[in-house]
Amino acid sequence: MRYTQEINFHFTLYFNSFNFVSFMTYRYFLKIAYDGSHFCGWQMQPNALTVQQKLQETMQLFCNLHGDTLGCGRTDTGVHAKEFFLHFDCESAIENHDEFIYKLNRVLPESIAVYELYKVGQEAHCRFDALSRTYEYHIQQAKNPFIKNAWYNSATLNLKAMVEGCQLLMQYEDFTSFSKSNTQVFTNNCAIFEAYWEQKEDLLVFTIKANRFLRNMVRAIVGSLIDLGKEKYNLEHFKTIIESKNRSNAGVSVPAQGLYLSQVSYPEYYFDHQEKLFKQD
Fold it and tell me: Residues with catalytic annotation?
């Protein structure tokens, strides 16, 4: 009986060690950009073409993916990304990073570009390790056939009032008034680090940087600031909208085609630190 137990014990140790080796994976970050015009957002979903689906199908041609990719966030249908990070696990190491990027770019459509590949530790997480994200919203104020992916709106706007609205936003943390309902998030509090408007010839660009964003938050804020710029209400009323914590009091959400995820920030020297983990490889 004791002999049988010892045999079973050693077999279990051998089997577990075999499983560990078999399922040992290598984690990578991939930096990409995409034009979201013809995609139903980033995340895979049934019966819809998404950026994640197209990218993942292409990646499987050149590496042994272990599970699905995971993005640093979720962009909605029609939203673009100038900078987007995802992480993924491979069952074998990617030896030549430049070649891997080259192959992906050769096969992917023009609407998706791959820029960088980073080898990282197993604990690295592209979503949870990000410190902040920056979004831009582009408004085309005069018809121009060479400006793409912007919302055409020729309304006369009081830009000074809209700038003051940005300054007011940064005094608050709870942005329930600009969030989609029933999103099941733990909190509607966000820390806004920057919010400003820039006039670039016929293009008006809104930039906002925060530690996190709520669903539909940027588009709802822009819609409300546009109403402020149209002088539908004054700054004091905009303040009551924020403090009401009621989405129905805020402006309409502006169209998706003008929205860009423009930057995702990680801790200083984040990728340098990750690279040091493999110095002895």
Answer: 76
pLDDT digits (tens, 9 = 90+) for 87-145: 999 999 999 999 999 999 999 999 999 999 999 999 999 999 999 999 999 999 999 99
Indicate the pTM of the whole model.
Answer: 0.89
Quote the number of domains for the chain: 2
Single residue among 129, 145, 172 that ends a domain in this structure: 129
Question: Taking the C-alpha atoms of 251, 246, 261 and 169 in order, what is their torsion angle to the nearest 10 degrees?
Answer: 80
What are phi and psi for residue 193, nearest 5 degrees? -95, -35
Boundaries of domain holding 215: 132-261
Length, in residues, of the chain: 281
Question: What does R_g of the chain's alpha carbons equal in angstroms?
Answer: 23
Please list the alpha-helical segments (H only) found in the chain: 2-22, 51-59, 97-107, 159-169, 217-229, 235-244, 270-276
